[in-house]
């Protein structure tokens, strides 16, 4: 835990003397974390492993129906960025012809998109801690909508690349900030289910967006794909404005504003690298390896689908090739509903067995899926296509089962980041999104090159070994993650 610097009240006598009072914001940050950190309140008894009585009051006082509405809103917002990322995949050959380039270059925009998705939580998660969840959601909804409009009217490849990256910057923030909102309004043993519902929003995108994109580009212009996303962005903004309250109990800006009531707006500097700095904790590094391996596999599977299946099954129009996005997408959707409840079940089960709640026990729910089902299905998919065995049915079934396995794992690792490091607030889950989308960018950028060089079978074999590496990291977390957290706390208090 971060060391608290003693507060020099002499430097705070005059609210208008900005110099010594806020030479910076360290004093305010100390107050903020003392108000918000589940581990730092010495005078409040904790229950259920880091959850304070004050936090319980917030969880209990918010009506259940309002919580569901917030979860729906966050899920809707989380639908935007993945949909923008995959909806135009069936249109890649058309876009390449329109901008006089190659499919590999267009797919490179997806890799850059994923890199910006990794950077987004570094900027927006600390921003939400400083200024609040609500204002962050509103800014990101508006930014996503405006940038998507500019993508839709792009006249050249540079404009298309730039504003697609900007949509990633705003659209991905919903994941990290949404995870913080869930930690604000739900108790630990309920968070897995809530995270699963939020993930359902992000997984509906890969399920239906490519199919809709294929239909759109078959019968009309590729630009219509992005105009549909503009409408969804407007819906997210309106719903956030009307229904999303501020869920953070305190923000740094709010504390400063209370001490300087004459200031309507307070500028607070913050360091985006604090999110990356969270990776100095070994358990978060392992959690990043887990989620990174999952997203590498996901993007390496989705990106080249038309490139692989069109020649294999002699498909000639985008609408037919886009149907192959349905099996993994529907698997993602089904798994997101099962994974959260399955993770919460394991939390309660091992709490009864051990007499206490240990965050790492949540990860036990995904070990069989991660170690057996996911590697097995990606191998079956790749080599069935490589050797031309099993017709259409075998790769479709493998993609569907693999999709279920993929999103059984994600709610566990998302909720683990929130539960294991409550004092980091949004930085813990934001650092996880940073690592996973970097891995997704690598998968997107390299999959076509691998397929053209060594074939789909060996490309999927590489994905299998990446998944096994993530599985080893998850096993290490289950058995040694608690010890890592203990070492971290004792080291920071020396």
TrEMBL record:
Q: Which GO terms describe its biological process?
A: export across plasma membrane; xenobiotic transport
Q: Which domain of life does this protein belong to?
A: Eukaryota
Q: Which UniProt keywords apply?
A: Membrane, Transmembrane, Transmembrane helix
- The regions listed as transmembrane in this protein's record are 69-92, 104-123, 135-155, 161-182, 194-218, 224-244, 284-302, 322-343, 363-384, 390-413, 434-451, 457-480
Which residue ranges does the record assign to the Major facilitator superfamily (MFS) profile domain? 70-487
Q: Where is the composition biased (Basic and acidic residues)?
A: 1-12
Please tell me where this protein is predominantly located. Answer: membrane
Q: Which GO terms describe its molecular function?
A: transmembrane transporter activity
Which portions of the sequence form the region Disordered? 1-21
Q: Report the subcellular localization.
A: Membrane
Membrane topology designation: Multi-pass membrane protein
The record's InterPro entries line, in alphabetical order, gives: MFS, MFS_dom, MFS_trans_sf, Sugar_transporter_CS
Which GO cellular component terms are attached?
Answer: plasma membrane
Entries under PANTHER family matching the protein: MAJOR FACILITATOR SUPERFAMILY, TRANSPORTER, PUTATIVE (AFU_ORTHOLOGUE AFUA_3G11760)-RELATED
Protein name in UniProt: LADA_0D13322g1_1
The source organism is: Lachancea dasiensis
Taxonomic lineage: Eukaryota, Fungi, Dikarya, Ascomycota, Saccharomycotina
């Amino acid at each position: 835990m971060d060391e608290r610097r003693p507060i020099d009240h002499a430097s705070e006598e005059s609210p208008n003397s900005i110099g010594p009072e806020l030479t910076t914001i360290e004093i305010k940050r100390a107050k903020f974390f003392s108000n918000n950190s589940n581990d730092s309140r010495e005078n409040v008894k904790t229950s259920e492993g880091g959850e304070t009585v004050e936090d319980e009051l917030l969880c209990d006082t918010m009506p259940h129906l309002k919580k569901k509405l917030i979860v729906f809103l966050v899920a809707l917002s989380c639908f935007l960025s993945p949909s923008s990322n995959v909806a135009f995949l069936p249109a890649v050959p058309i876009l390449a012809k329109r901008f006089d380039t190659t499919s590999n270059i267009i797919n490179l925009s997806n890799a850059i998109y994923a890199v910006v998705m990794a950077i987004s939580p570094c900027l927006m998660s600390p921003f939400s801690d400083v200024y609040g969840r609500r204002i962050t959601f509103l800014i990101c909804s508006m930014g996503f909508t405006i940038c998507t409009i500019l993508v839709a009217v792009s006249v050249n490849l540079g404009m298309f690349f730039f504003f697609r990256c900007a949509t990633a910057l705003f659209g991905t923030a919903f994941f990290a900030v949404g995870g913080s909102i869930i930690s604000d309004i739900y108790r630990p043993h309920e968070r897995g289910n809530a995270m699963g519902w939020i993930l359902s929003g992000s997984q509906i995108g890969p399920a239906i967006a490519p199919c809709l994109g294929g239909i759109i580009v078959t019968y009309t212009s590729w630009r219509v794909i992005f105009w549909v996303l503009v409408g969804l962005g407007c819906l997210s903004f309106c719903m956030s404005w009307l229904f999303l309250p501020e869920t953070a109990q305190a923000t740094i800006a709010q504390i400063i504003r209370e001490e300087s009531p004459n200031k309507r707006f307070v500028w607070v500097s913050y360091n985006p690298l604090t999110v990356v700095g969270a990776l100095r904790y070994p358990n978060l590094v392992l959690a990043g390896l887990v989620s990174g391996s999952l997203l590498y596999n996901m993007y390496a599977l989705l990106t080249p689908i038309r490139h692989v299946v069109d020649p294999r099954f002699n498909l000639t129009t985008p609408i037919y090739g886009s149907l192959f996005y349905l099996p993994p997408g529907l698997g993602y959707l089904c798994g997101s509903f099962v994974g959260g409840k399955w993770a919460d079940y394991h939390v309660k089960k091992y709490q009864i067995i051990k007499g206490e709640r240990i965050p790492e026990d949540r990860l036990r729910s995904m070990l069989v899926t991660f170690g057996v089902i996911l590697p097995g299905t990606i191998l079956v998919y790749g080599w069935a296509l490589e050797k031309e065995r099993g017709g259409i049915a075998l790769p479709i079934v493998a993609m569907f089962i693999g999709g279920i396995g993929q999103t059984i794992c994600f709610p566990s690792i998302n909720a683990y980041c929130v539960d294991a490091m409550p004092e980091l607030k949004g930085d813990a889950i934001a650092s996880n999104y940073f690592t996973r989308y970097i891995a997704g960018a690598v998968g997107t950028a390299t999959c076509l090159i691998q397929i053209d060089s060594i074939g789909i079978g060996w490309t999927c074999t590489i994905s299998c070994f990446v998944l096994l590496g993530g599985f080893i990291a998850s096993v290490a977390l289950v058995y040694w993650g608690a010890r890592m957290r203990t070492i971290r706390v004792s080291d920071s208090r020396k």
